[in-house]
TrEMBL record:
GO terms for biological process: protein transport. This is Preprotein translocase subunit YajC. Residues 82-121 are annotated as: Disordered. Residues 83-108 have a biased composition (Low complexity). It comes from Lacticaseibacillus brantae DSM 23927. Belongs to the YajC family. It is a single-pass membrane protein.
Length: 121
């Protein structure tokens, strides 16, 4: 009975607690690496550029298109980095695709006549 309880706690640790701690550490590292000029996304979906960070007050000022907004650091969901230092995304390459072929066989004339109303006399 005690062995089962120990196994249950071991499973709970590796399945729930350990991944949550790892995720918290990654988020903390992301927030601590933020700097002025980084593109960020808030938890509300607002995209902006960091204007200033106040670690003492745990706040950040974002420039969202000539509008400066003050947010708590906890409101930052994603840091995209400085746009000048990010590599350019390669242009989408287009590959010629084979023409689409119908997967169903063409309907015969007998099938088409079922849709038409009967001739009226």
């Amino acid at each position: 009975m005690i062995v089962m309880l120990v196994l249950l706690f071991g499973f709970m640790y590796f399945a729930m607690i350990r991944p949550q701690r790892k995720q918290q550490q990654q988020r903390q590292a992301m927030l601590s690496s933020m700097k002025k000029g980084d593109n960020v996304v808030t938890i509300g979906g607002l995209h902006g550029v960091i204007d200033s960070i106040d670690n003492a007050k745990q706040t950040v000022v974002l420039n969202a298109g000539d509008v400066y907004l003050l947010f708590n650091l906890s409101a930052i969901r994603l840091v995209e980095g400085d746009p000048a230092t990010q590599p350019a995304t390669p242009a989408a390459t287009t590959t010629p695709e084979a023409p689409a072929t119908p997967e169903t066989p063409a309907a015969s004339d007998a099938d088409k006549s079922d849709d038409k109303p009967a001739n009226e006399a």
